[in-house]
Amino acid sequence: MAYLEKHGSTLSTTGPQRPSYLTEKLSYNSTLLPNAAFQPPEALPHRYPDMIDTFASYKYRNTCNISSLDLHSPFAPLCPDRASMLTAMASGGRIGHDAPYMPRGCDMRWFSTEEICEILSRFEKVIILGDSMMRHVVGSINVLIRKDLGYGAVTDWNFSPEERQDCFCNYQFNVKSCSVQGIFKTSDVAKNDPESLACPADKIDVIIEQMIRFPIPNDELDRLRGLLPSKKPARPYAFIYGHGLWNNLDLQATLDWLDTLLDTSVQAAPWLSSTSHSRPKSRSKSKGSRAAAIAAAKGERDKNGNGKGFWPRLFMTPNAAGKEKPDEWVVSQGNKALMIFEESVAVEVGRRGVEHLGTWNMSIQSNTFDGV
């Protein structure tokens, strides 16, 4: 087309003329976006963090060269509730490779560190259970609450000079070299480097227990039981689950893994639900238990007005496969298998009263650190 445009002046003026809509100037107010695909964020105080680089005051911001605006591009409207936000986030993506992420249909909030601290303080404990992806999730949370892009996810207070070099910026998420140096609970930060926490250390408690295998070993289940008090605490507990790749995206194995964790949690802490969770064996037999689990997640009351357990739970499915995924795993763990797994898990965990966040679509056009 550029070639034809450059040579258009040599064409005969007696031939067909260009349509008027290609040549006439349109008068419109260019400051308005009446037909834009994405509207600017609402001019409201709580949207201010969405529109600035909230990493500007973080340690090593310029050295690591990461802006929050590189990660998320804000627009209007905000999602009106949690359910629509999870759907929008799971179905959102990027306009171009490695472009900022955007949910679909409605936007999420990009919270400031101060807001993150306030949100985490609403819970007695946030328990993250799962595999290496969940280790990255808790590492990212630690980066945010420590305001440190260089070493926020790792135990830099005991690093050797070599480790400070090898586990810096993105490399702190290197599974082979730095995973053993990851921060697995905020209490370790409060004990060893309290000044690095932007949140009040006595107000937040985030912990991860890595549980990748099924059947789950008894010692791992014992650690979960040890995190749960028998009496209802003043603030609720929140749970984030992630599983799949270590079981080769075996749906039944993942559901058995989740059911074991749900059963173990209710047995150790009956206050989580007024009715014990049971595994959905069929639609008719599991209807009551599913309803009880969903009611517990919503904090609803029964017909007598008694409060049911409040049990916020989220399941995250694996991210998209990168171009460095080994050939032997392309069929069983490639993008087709990941998409089918994500869709199936969303349905099944919903039957258990567990909310779901898919990460395949939000990560398919992103540049992964290890390429896998």
SSE blueprint and pairings:
Layout: H1 2-6, H2 20-23, H3 48-51, H4 61-64, H5 68-71, H6 82-91, E1 93-94, E2 101-102, H7 113-120, E3 125-130, H8 132-146, H9 161-166, H10 175-178, H11 186-192, E4 206-210, H12 218-227, E5 237-242, H13 251-268, H14 283-298, E6 313-316, H15 330-333, H16 335-351, E7 355-357, H17 360-363
Parallel strand pairs: 3-4, 3-5, 5-6, 6-7
Antiparallel strand pairs: 1-2
Helix pairs in contact: 12-13
Q: Any descriptors?
A:
alpha/beta, two-stranded antiparallel ribbon, 372 residues, single chain, globular
Give an overview of the whole structure.
The protein is globular. Helices cover about 40% and strands about 10% of the residues. Helix 12 packs across helix 13 (about 250-270). Residues about 1-15, about 30, about 280-290 and about 300-305 have low confidence and may be disordered. The strands form 2 sheets. A 5-stranded parallel β-sheet has the order 4-3-5-6-7, sandwiched between helices. A two-stranded antiparallel sheet has the order 1-2. The longest helix is centred in the last third of the chain and has 18 residues, at about 250-270. It has 17 helices and 7 strands.
